[in-house]
Amino acid sequence: MPGFEWFSDLERKHLNDVLATGVLMRYGFDDARNGHWKAKELERALSDRFSVAHAQLTSSGTTALSTAMAVLGVGAGDEVIMPSFTFVASFEAIIAAGAVPVVVDVDDTLTLDPQAVLQAITPKTKAVMPVHMCGGMADLAALQKICKEHHLYLLEDACQAIGGTYQGAYLGTIGDIGCFSFDYVKTITCGEGGVLLTNNKDWAVNADAYTDHGHDHIGNDRGAETHPYMGYNFRISELHAAVGLAQLQRLDDIIAQQRRHKKSI
Question: Which residue among 186, 201, 262, 263 is the active-site one?
């Protein structure tokens, strides 16, 4: 049951806050926005909800994964191990970084088989990317152990698993970086959007710049900001973030409804 089926006056209220100001961009125009910063508010709410230090909103789950690749330093010649059962965006993000997707078998979890991961590691391996497909979860304890022993990054593609937990911790918060998608048919939606979660401050700073043409976001004059980093336009809009604010408030209710549906099958 996707979040768009739950649209109500709460989404409309947050959207109308933005429309009343006319400021649809998440950065700048401080005086005109009448105190409304929907993207910043949603990032704080996501950080609080999932108990992580940093949340960086993006324009999609795909751009969240691409941003994660960039801040982890995944690039030309690197290899990223990923499962054979996934959505196209998983390997698109790897290829966009100039890296090589190494596709390995899944196990009964329908996610990465840890033994297959071990067999696929080479000197070029930079990261392991489990994909929690359809809300299923990878054997993250085994994958964490492998990554620690081989000095690899663990990047969780949790785009289809928001709200799921593994040994008491939220999926998307267990690896070095985790990513969610908020597209139209996800558990909760912004219409379009995604987020990168991490507890690493340096990666969060780099992600903030990377998603906005390398802006350093220092000071109150956007035109005077410097661009110390490479970046792209991966920004979310205030309108999309406004929808997400309402949707996040009902995440528990949506998941509870999904579980009731599952029991009735």
Answer: 186
